[in-house]
Design a protein that fits this description.
It is a single chain. The chain has 341 residues and is of the alpha/beta class. The protein has a single domain, classed as Rossmann fold. Helices cover 36% and strands 21% of the residues. The termini are far apart. Bound molecules: adenosine-5'-diphosphate and magnesium ion. The site of magnesium ion (MG) has 3 residues, from helix 2. Magnesium ion (MG) binds next to helix 2.
């Protein structure tokens, strides 16, 4: 009789569990004094962030990207829906909750200069979070600072720690912001357009650094951008947002090779060459992209105002999310026409 082997169930779900997830999250803002004046900056958005993976969120200015990041960062509360960290719904009620949450979920911003205090040295900026989050002092603190500088490739660290923000280049300052985020030893890094204010020549370096960090540290990264070329470069998956809603999502390769929503196609067509788009498109400012009015108040598809396929159904009913490939989802009533256009 063959020996029976008790096979333990592989904890697949445990492995696959997202670190951070948004489940049907919406954020509504009141506009002015009119009772009915509301704007859904983010509407019914669900996303999952996994260890060691980058999810890129792409969309024009005003599409709700930063609001989504703030919701995930605990800086804003959803009007409806849930944010879950390691499987538990989060509730940030006060500063103490927020501090604890920030230990795990860190954010970096577009303008590294604005987030650094000009009167303090780089060392000061990094010491604080290391003391607060890791409770280190003396030699251990020093070692940790050197380690952080090393992680972001500012070496030798000692040369930079005594400098002031204005003595560094934009790229170096963004590296400092990243180091400061890492000082908390987070599991999640939310990067809101981290390269869009930097010189073109150094954008790729910073993206390469983020790519490297997620691999080395197993960080789950949300990369926000208005530039689909850089989303393709850094993202494993891409989520395309328009007027607060997700219009297309899927593997980065799939979404950029076979864009199926007219809006994604527009983003790609305004990126020059799909294969070498990273170098060329990284140079393009957002303003060179076709900007139109978003119409978030419609009950139908918000893209109707710009869509070549818009009809009555589009105007009255939001299109359901439809699979067009493995893990590739699109919200459009005219997927077929859009694809063959
Ligand atoms: N605190 C707020 N109060 C009112 N409206 C807001 C607020 N924050 C953002 N919005 C609006 O929500 C929409 C999405 O903004 P945002 O998330 O910043 O988009 P993105 O980052 O994609 O440019 C915009 O129309 C913006 O004006
Ligand atoms: Mg923004």
């Amino acid at each position: 009789m063959p020996e029976t082997v008790e096979v333990m169930a592989w904890p697949e779900q445990e492995q696959e569990r997202p670190v951070l997830r948004a489940r049907s999250v919406s954020r509504r803002y009141r506009l002015g004094r009119r009772r009915d004046g509301v704007l859904d900056a983010v509407k019914d958005v669900s996303i999952d962030l996994y260890r060691g993976k980058v999810l890129a969120v792409v969309g024009e200015s005003g599409s709700g990207k930063s609001t989504l990041a703030k919701l995930l960062a605990g800086r804003e509360s959803p009007t409806s829906g849930l944010i879950e960290l390691e499987g538990s719904a989060i509730k940030v009620r006060n500063q103490r909750d927020f501090r604890q949450y920030k230990r795990v979920v860190q954010m970096i911003f577009q303008d590294p200069f604005a987030s650094l205090n000009p009167v303090h040295t780089i060392g000061y900026h990094l010491e604080r979070p290391v003391k607060i989050h890791q409770g280190l002092s003396g030699e251990e603190l020093k070692d940790q600072l050197a380690f952080l500088m090393d992680q972001v490739r500012l070496t030798p660290g000692s040369r930079y720690l005594s400098k002031y923000p204005h003595e560094l280049s934009g790229g170096q300052r963004q590296r400092v912001s990243i180091a400061r985020a890492l000082a908390a030893r987070p599991s999640v890094l939310l990067a809101d357009e981290p390269v869009s204010m930097l010189d073109v020549s150094i954008r790729l370096e910073i993206l390469a650094l983020l790519d490297d960090l997620r691999t080395r540290l197993g960080l789950a990264v949300l990369y926000i951008t208005h530039d689909i070329a850089s989303a393709r470069y850094l993202g494993d998956d891409i989520v395309v947002m328009y007027a607060g809603q997700v219009v297309e999502r899927g593997a980065a390769e799939e979404v950029t090779q076979r864009p199926s929503h007219p809006y994604t196609q527009l983003l790609i067509s305004s990126s020059p060459d799909p294969d070498s788009m990273i170098t060329t498109a990284l140079a393009r400012p957002e303003s060179s992209m076709h900007q139109g009015t978003m119409n978030p108040s419609t009950t139908g598809c918000p893209f109707v105002v710009r869509c070549p396929f818009a009809d009555d159904q589009c105007r009255s009913e939001y299109p359901p999310s439809t699979a067009v490939g493995l893990g590739h989802w699109v919200s459009c009533w005219h997927i077929e026409e859009a694809r063959h256009d």
